[in-house]
Structure formats: C-alpha cells, structure tokens
Sequence to fold (303 residues):
Amino acid sequence: MPTRLQCPELRHLSHPPTLHDLTPGYRVARWDHPRALSSRSRDRLHTTLCGLAERAFGADHSSYWRTRVHSGFFDQITTLALILGPDDTPVGWGGYHRLRLASRRSLYLDAAGVVPAHRRFGLSAALMTHFLTREVLAHPLSNTYVVLRTRHPAVYAGWRRGLGAHRVFPDRHRTLPGLVRRLAGEAAEWLGDGPRLHPDTLVVRDAYRMFDGDIYGTRPRSGDTGIDGYFDDAIGPRDAVLVVARTNIHVLARLAAARRVRARLRHHRTPNDIRPFHDHTEDVRTATPTAAGASGLLPPPRF
Fold:
C-alpha cells in the first residue's frame, strides 16, 4: 500500500497527516495536531468534511460545519482523521477530544460518518477501534471512558453489542452509577449542554439546536425493536442521548479478536467489489463498536 497521499485535494497540506492501514484496501489519514494546519489547509479540509457529511447523513450540514470551524474546531480537537478508500479518496471521517472527566481518562468522540457506498465494511468500527487502541495502550493499567452524543439508535446499539451492555450507559434497566453521572455531567458542561441534560436518563434536550434543517435525510433505525422504540419515545427530533462507555485493554483485546473473525468470514468481499448501497445504516450485528457510520454530532465545545 502506498505511503504517500494520492488524492490531489489532500496533498501539499501545511501539516501532512500520518497514514495507517485500517482495513484491507482502506487507510486512515490522521492529524494528531490539527491546530498546526494553516488557514488555507483548514479551508480545504473544511470543504472535504462538509461534502462527506452531506453524503453520509443525506442532509445539508454546511451551517453546522461553518459554525464549528468558525468557533475553533481545528484548534480544539485532539485528533482528526479521514478514512481513505481504495483509490485514496476520502470516504469517511472522525475524531476525538482527549479529556479529564470526573478525574478519569476520557475521550469525547466528535462527529463521524462514512458515505453510503462504503458502508457494511466495518469502517466506522475500525476507525473507532483505531482511536481506542492508541489511547488505551498509552495507559493500559487503567480504564478509559468514552463519551459520545447521538440520536442514532444503531450507534447506541453498536456500542452495547461491541463492549457489552454492562459497560455502556444509559441502560433502561439499571440505575446510573454515581461515576457515570459525574462523567456525563462534566461532559455536558464542557459541551455547553449542562442545563439540558436529564441526570437520570442522560437525554440532552434540544441538543441539535444549531441545525437549520434535518439531521438525517431518513429516520435512523438499529433493527432492535426495543432500542428503536426507546429512541422513538424518549428522544425528540432535536434531542440526543449522552452515551458513556467504559473500556480497557482487556475489552480492546476482545474487540481485536472479534474483528479478525469477522474479517475471515467476509474475506471474499474486497473493496474492489464495492457496489452502492441504498441502506443508510450498517448491520448492527456486525459493526463494532459504532454501527451506523455516525458516532454523533456536537456543537462547539466550551472551554
């Protein structure tokens, strides 16, 4: 696999990314210091992110990204990454913020997505696992907490299936532990959502108030009737749920083993065989830890 970027729109940036293999035929271009990007390079990446988001969500997110970039997106995010397809063009993106919440090592997953034609190949899951591997291995003796905000039921279902339901909150069948409440509360304050967070359900009211239009072009589903019903009943059209998940090196090892098994099962499906899919969600049963090509969307964080 080439070690240089072949995509013209990503070449000659002021701060080039590091390149890593992601899954067969796909790579990740990762910026660990996005703040080092020049104004011109930021503009180019802004345009790329807007285009990917519109294709991934089936809706116009330009106003959302314009607000985020003007509010300091590239200066605030810890790591930004693009998923590169077989021809080295961007087909997805993601990123995260490294935080200290409730005195625990935490990651806040930023907006992420994969364009429809490249779904069902576990790219979202692979990117999230790439992020987790990097962070968990840096501190292998302690837990790392992942926080994300979403209104996509398949994302929530995917994390529960991937890490285990007992590691993911909120859980309709269990009371929130005190630590999870503190983590969620501090994350909501950091996001500027503190007053809108329900402390028992972790539902954030009017979370997507910055959107002019629809968040998703089609209503997202997970395929799990219980979870889909919960999102229908508890989460309004502009609301979100703040998900808190606990992971560590043992969970990471299990995720890696599961991915190897899945890769063997579908080795006959190569990127060269990709055809456009009309379904706008990945199969939640095989996508770990995120499931739908969209880990969530957030407003500009407050520091």
The beta strands are 18-23, 26-31, 79-84, 90-101, 104-109, 113-114, 144-150, 168-169, 203-204, 240-247.
